[in-house]
Design goal:
This protein is of the alpha+beta class. The chain contains five helices and five strands, in the order ββαβββαααα.
């Protein structure tokens, strides 16, 4: 059974008809063509699919698209504006906070949510906040460095 839902995705109102069992991740990727968010595990534990739902982090691989009806979604594609990268995106590039790239969209979205909540986090706060984002490549040092740099950039 299909259901028509209305979402605001990255600031744009969208309407899409989806099967009631479709995940938000599949809706974003397959129905709306926003392929930034990745599926790393499919069970909501790795963080690669993290998006913001009304400003709160969620695992889009386990959230049903119909549950997002009427809500605002922000994906990694929606962070950049005015043809410039978001400071978190730029910091990840500048500090090399990525390797293979699978976890990077979720890391960036989670880091943005962190800096919205705690503009000047300690390293311990960064580590705790980012626990839900697994990375098999970087060893996390460059990710922490990236978030620290983005926090400094935001304060400047």
């Amino acid at each position: 059974m299909n259901r028509k839902i209305r979402l605001t995705v990255n600031g744009t109102a969208r309407a899409v008809e989806v099967p009631t069992y479709r995940t938000l991740l599949d809706c974003l990727r397959n129905d709306l063509g926003l392929t930034g968010s990745k599926e790393g595990c499919g069970v909501g534990v790795c963080g690669a699919c993290t998006v913001l739902l009304d400003g709160k982090m969620i695992s889009s691989c386990i959230a049903l698209a119909v549950s997002a009806d009427g809500h605002e979604i922000t994906t990694v594609e929606g962070l950049a504006g005015d043809e410039r990268l978001h400071p978190v995106q730029q910091a990840f590039i500048d500090a090399g906070g990525f390797q293979c790239g699978i976890c990077t969209p979720g890391q960036v979205v989670s880091a943005k949510a962190l800096l919205d909540a705690i503009p000047n986090p300690s390293d311990a706060e960064i580590r705790e906040w980012m626990l839900g984002n697994l990375c098999r490549c970087t060893g996390y040092y460059k990710i922490i460095e990236s978030i620290r740099a983005a926090a400094q950039q935001s304060r400047a």
